[in-house]
Every structure is written in structure tokens, then in C-alpha cells.
Amino acid sequence: MKLLPIVFLILISFSCQQKDPNLYTADLIIYGGTSAAITAAVQAKTMGKSVIVVSPDTHLGGLSSGGLGFTDTGNKSVIGGLAREFYHRIYQHYQQDSAWKWQKKEDYGNKGQGTIAMDGENRTMWIFEPHVAEQVFEDFVVENNLEIHRDEWLDRQSGVIKENGEITQIQTLSGKTYRGKVFIDATYEGDLMAAAGVSYHVGRESNATYREKWNGVQVGVYQHRHYFQNNISPYVIPDDSTSGLLPEISSEPPGQNGEGDNRLQAYTYRLAMSRHPDNRIPFPKPDNYYPARYELLARVYAAGWDETFEKYDPIPNLKTDTNNHGPFSTDYIGKNYDYPEASYAEREQILKEHTDYQQGLLYYMSHDENVPDSVRAEMANWGLAKDEFVNNNNWPHQIYVREARRMVGAYVMTEHDVLGDKEVPEPVGMGSYSLDSHNTQRFVTKEGFVQNEGDIGVHPENPYSISYGTLVPKKEECTNLLVPVCVSSSHTAFGSIRMEPVFMILGQSAAAAASLVIDNDIPVQEVKYAELKQLLLEEGQVLSQQD
User: Fold this and answer.
1) How far apart are CA 518 and CA 27, in angstroms?
2) Are 437 and 455 in contact (CB under 8 A)?
3) Could you tell me if 190 and 483 are in contact, meaning their C-beta atoms sit under 8 angstroms apart?
């Protein structure tokens, strides 16, 4: 009998030695480091669930902390829950005198930006510096004691294990294994969704697919000013087709209007630039810079175009969220088609090409004699913000993945839902922004001129609801996965849904649904909507115009 305690201790010791140090378990595993990932994690912890965020990113918040500070809000009244809390915390930050290091608060407001940025009545602020947004996300982490595993990349080839239609575990390239009851894919790319065998689409559907109007190829549709308004020759020697095409122009025909293709709207980096002399650094010259790459822009300038600075959108402290504008700008058109399905190494190369293009463009606009003197003089007032992205040479750590994979799930949102032509079932959030797509290709017209294609902007008359079915795969494909970013929608509908406040809303709603799935031990497709709706309303979400 005296041997029992010794045997017991030996067994415990042996058990401890056998525990896999690379195995982690939680009720909910969230893959991604985006704004949706963090709001999902906060909601799950609020509901008493254990959660691990497995983030390939070191910096949290995705585009919300990666340069997109001039928020595309649409109708702000439909932004509720943790998304509104995020913008409330931004507001609180800028109420402090210490927040205004490079500019007086009253000067920002007096120039008109403050009326757009700050909603004093609702104590929210919608325009902000990247580092401020990142700090809000990090505050969420600390306050909720979130477990974040950073720089962990999903093994997309063999790292997702499924049994009987459920994901049981995922593994990252570092060898770590994560087991959970429910999984959320909160990435811009939809890597977990794809590796789990869930159906998805890349590119534009044909208009015939969902009986839409604004999907597919849209040659000759100009709803913004992002097209060539003058006849510009695409050839190295103007008007000489035998001299070859200038860089950044496709030799492929654009296709017939309304037909589907695999082209994606262009990506860009949203730049935090500064015009304060003590907080800017010169635009870097890429190693492989060659000015001929930007000859098209020189010809646009020569034709009289003068809108260079119209999307240098002002954010606090004499900075800007610089976005694409005009026929030739920061969007690297046609160079991202392979990105969604590319390997990690291939993606890195695509990102480098985008960086080289955009940095080269800034250097060209600042130095080349083919750029008007007035533009170069104004560019001399700008540089990359010295106090942003300080561990990445002041360059954004997140490219603007406007669109990658889109799930084909239990319910597919289309432009009919967004434009109010039908009632949306089982809403879990709302959107309101335009059907917005940037250009997808630059081609040669039949008349022999260069033109862009793919840019649309159709505004819904009213905010619209987003269905729970857009977050849920088909039941036969996976029963414990939710997807709040690469949602089930057509290209045109996604053009409106893809806004950062909406991703935060859907991340929170996905986590609430996941908690109900865990509590009731049911597939995600069998969540009782009445129960979910009541929960979301209690959490401050806005689900329809009646709420």
C-alpha cells in the first residue's frame, strides 16, 4: 500500500513528460490578425469561451491599423457593437492634448477635416493615424487577456485536419498544432477556408450567374474619375504599334461586357505621409527604379491632368491616408491576379513588386522632369511619416487586399441584396457603402488608345442587412467554420461589404454564433437565429433599419 503514492507520482511525471509543448487547445481558434479577428476574440471572451488568435501578422488590425485611417464608413448609424467601441476609443484618444504632437487639434477641425472625422454627439472618430488604431487593438488584447500567437502561418498543404465534416485541428509552419471546437477564418485571403475544402470564387462572376448588372467585365463604364479622359497612346513610340506597349499595359483583350473572368480589383498600400518637416523622411528610391515605367503618367500630365493630390486624404497631425486617384496612380492594376492562390513565397514576391511600383511612383513624381514643376514642388512638402510603421522603414505592413477569395456558402449576397431589391434573411450586421470596385485591367482600345476597366461605384439608396448565411459554409463542406471576411458574396456585393467597420461587425457576430454552437454542440448551420439575434442586439449590433 505504501507504494501507491510513489506509483501515482511516477504516472503524473510520465504524463507531464508526454504533453506536447506545441499543442494548444481552446473552445475557439481564430486564424488571422485582422480587425475582424480581434473583435471576434473579444466577443468570444465576453461570452466565457477560451480563444486563441493564431495570427500570421505581427501587427494586429489589418488595414485598420495598416494605413486605412480615412475610414470608408457609409452610413455611420448602422455601425454598432465592438466596431463602434473601436471608433469611440479613437475619439477618446484624440480628446487628449498629448495626441496632437504635430498639429493643433483646432487647426485640424478648422480646415474642415474635423467635421468629417469627429462625431462629438456620438463620441466617435472615424479618421485616425495608423499607430493609434494599432494601440486600440492592443488595448483590447490586454483588457480581455487575449492569447495571441503572432507570426504563425497556416500549413496550407496539410495543416488542416477534418473528421466527419468538422475541422479538428490546424497546424502552422512552425509545427504548432491548434485544436478547437469551432474555427474562424478572419484573413483577407481565406486561407483556412480554402484549406478546409470549402467552396469559393476568385475573380468576377458573369452577370448571368446571379442575374446582376454590375458584375463581370465593364468596358466603358466610368463611375469615378479613375480612367483616361484623353486619348493617350499606349505605345513606346506614340502612335507606333510596332514599337511595343509601354509598361503596365496588358496585351490581352479586355473581354465582353458582363462576362466573368479571374481578374481582381487592384491592390495598393495606403500610405501614411507627413508634411511636417520634423516628421517626414524622403521617399525612398527602389533599387530597381526605372522612370520609363511611369511614362504613361507623364503623358497624362502632358494632356493636362491636374488631380494629383485629390486623394491625399488628411488624417490628424499633418498626415495623410493616401489612396489611388486618377487614371495612373498607386493602384498596381493587373498585377495581383495570382495573389489569392499563390504560395507564401510567391505572395512575398507579389508584395515586393507592389512596393517597388509604388515607391518608384512616389520617387518619380518627386524627381522626374517629365512631372510638372507644380507637382514636384508640392511633393517636396511630403514624405513618409517618420512615426508610423517604425519597424518597417515607415512603409505599411499590410497591403490593401481589396478582394481575394470569396466563399460560396449557405447564402450568397448579391447586388440585389445590397441595392434593396430583396429582403435579406437572418441579418447579423449591416453595410451601406457603394458597390465599389477599383480597376482590374489596363488595355488597348480598338481605336488604339490606353484605357482602364473595372471601376464601378453604385450607391444603395439605404443601408442593407447582411445575412448570417454569408458567414457559413455549405453544411456538406464544413460544420464548424465561420468566415467573416471572405464572406459568401458576389464580386459586386463584396465591393460594398469589404469595408473595415463591416469586417469588425461580422467578426463579432461570427464569434457570438460560435459561442452558441459550442454551448449547444450543434453545426454552425443549425444556430437558432432568434437566439443569435437577441444576443447580437444585446451586444449593441445593428441588424436592420428597424433596430
Assistant:
1) 7
2) yes
3) yes
**Residue 8 pLDDT exceeds 60:** no
Contact 205, 218 (CB under 8 A): no
Tens digits of residue pLDDT in 269-290: 999 999 999 999 999 999 899 9
Q: Decide: residue 88, CB within 10 A, 0-12 exposed, 13-18 middle, 19+ buried.
A: middle
Q: State the DSSP string of 185-233.
A: E--SS-HHHHHTT--EEESB--HHHHT-SSSS--TT--SSS-S--S---
End-to-end CA distance of the chain: 68
pTM: 0.95
Dist CA 422 CA 78 (whole Å): 19
Q: Which of 445, 435, 486 is nearest to 219 (CA)?
A: 445
Average pLDDT on 33-46 reads 98
Q: From its phi and psi, is residue 48 left (phi > 0), alpha (psi between -120 and 50) or beta?
A: left
Cell of 389: 510603421
> Kind of pairing, strands 124-125 and 118-119?
antiparallel
* Other Cβ atoms within 10 Å of 98 Cβ, number: 6
- What pLDDT does 2 receive? 47
Cα–Cα dist 126/106, whole Å: 17
| Residue 108 to residue 110: CA distance in whole angstroms | 6
Q: What is each CA distance from 56 to 62, 187, 328, in whole angstroms? A: 11, 9, 32
Angle at 311 between CA 305 and CA 313, to 5 degrees: 150
Q: How confident is the model at residue 451, as a pLDDT?
A: 98
Cα–Cα distance measured from residue 35 to residue 111, given in angstroms and rounded to the nearest whole number: 30
Which among 429, 437, 452, 432 is positioned nearest to 406, based on CA atoms? Answer: 437
If you average pLDDT over residues 423-434, what whole number do you get? 97
Cβ-contact 457, 498 below 8 angstroms = no
Please report the pLDDT score of residue 247 as a whole number. 95
